[in-house]
Specification:
Blueprint: H1 2-28, E1 29-33, E2 47-52, E3 84-88, E4 96-103, E5 108-112, E6 115-118, E7 121-122, E8 124-136, E9 139-149, E10 155-161, E11 172-173, E12 178-182, E13 201-202, E14 206-216, H2 230-233, E15 241-242
Antiparallel strand pairs: 1-2, 2-14, 3-4, 3-14, 4-12, 5-6, 5-11, 6-7, 8-9, 9-10, 12-13, 14-15
Length: 244
């Protein structure tokens, strides 16, 4: 009898812990891992960050497995241009992407000679370094880095390849209730420029705002389980870093 009660008590504890974890993950914070180099230099492969789920309100995509428990968003708040956002791709409404918000509903976006134009106004770019080495997947690429400043004065670092770079595009017009996203590693990012893969992202697909980088490891140097390699693997300088 005592053994049975212990099992029941342990089972209840596990259920309560699971419920609490789901509530925190769905309504407050969710950890995410960065698997690609599309946001370098700001986000590196191996970064682990917290995304706040309450920043833009909630949709079905705020919850595990996106259950159709309600339509549209509740407690909705509008994102700001320049926010780093996790969203579900329109292609399958399942895959998580993380990119920077560039275009708001009704905006026109266009690349002309490598510069971004928002509503026919050129976004200010200031050169920082014209000889930086970044990754694009497993390939090392030579890039120039710039400080990009959006119309709302939000600034951050972006990079463009020095050999072959994205120069010109058609004009993108962002539909109502949709957003336009770009990766900061501009020539190594599948984002809203590619309409058949990502394209315009509906507001209901927003998962949350990337806020804090809490841990980072360089998986190219080895596994985190190789303790003797920690001096090379773990990026201590990126612990608990607020994202811009």
């Amino acid at each position: 009898m005592i053994k049975k009660n212990v099992i029941i008590d342990n089972l209840k504890t596990l259920i309560y812990a699971l419920i609490i974890a789901i509530i925190i993950r769905s309504l407050l914070l969710q950890p995410f891992y960065i698997p690609s180099s599309s946001m370098e230099l700001n986000l590196l492969v191996g970064d682990r960050l917290f995304v706040t789920k309450y920043s833009y309100g909630y949709s079905k995509h705020s919850f595990p497995f996106s259950p159709p428990i309600f339509k549209n968003r509740i407690f909705e708040k509008n994102p700001e241009r320049g926010d780093i956002i996790v969203f579900k791709t329109p292609y399958d409404n399942r895959t998580d992407y993380i990119k920077r918000l560039i275009g708001l509903p009704g905006d026109t976006i266009q690349f002309i000679d490598g510069y971004i134009y928002i509503n026919n106004n050129q976004v200010l770019n200031t050169l920082i370094n014209n000889n930086e080495i970044l990754y694009c997947g497993s390939q090392k690429i030579n890039v120039s880095t710039f400080e990009e400043k959006l119309p709302n004065n939000k600034s951050y670092i972006v990079s463009y390849r020095n050999d072959v770079s994205y120069q010109n595009s058609d004009k993108y017009t962002v539909p109502d209730n949709h957003y336009f996203f770009l990766g900061d590693n501009r020539d190594c990012s599948k984002d809203s420029r590619f309409l058949s893969d990502v394209g315009y992202v509906h507001k209901d697909n927003l998962v949350g705002k990337a806020q804090i980088l809490f841990f980072s490891s360089n998986r190219r140097e080895g596994s985190i389980f190789q303790i003797w390699k920690w001096p090379k693997i773990i990026r201590y300088d990126r612990f608990f870093k607020k994202l811009n």
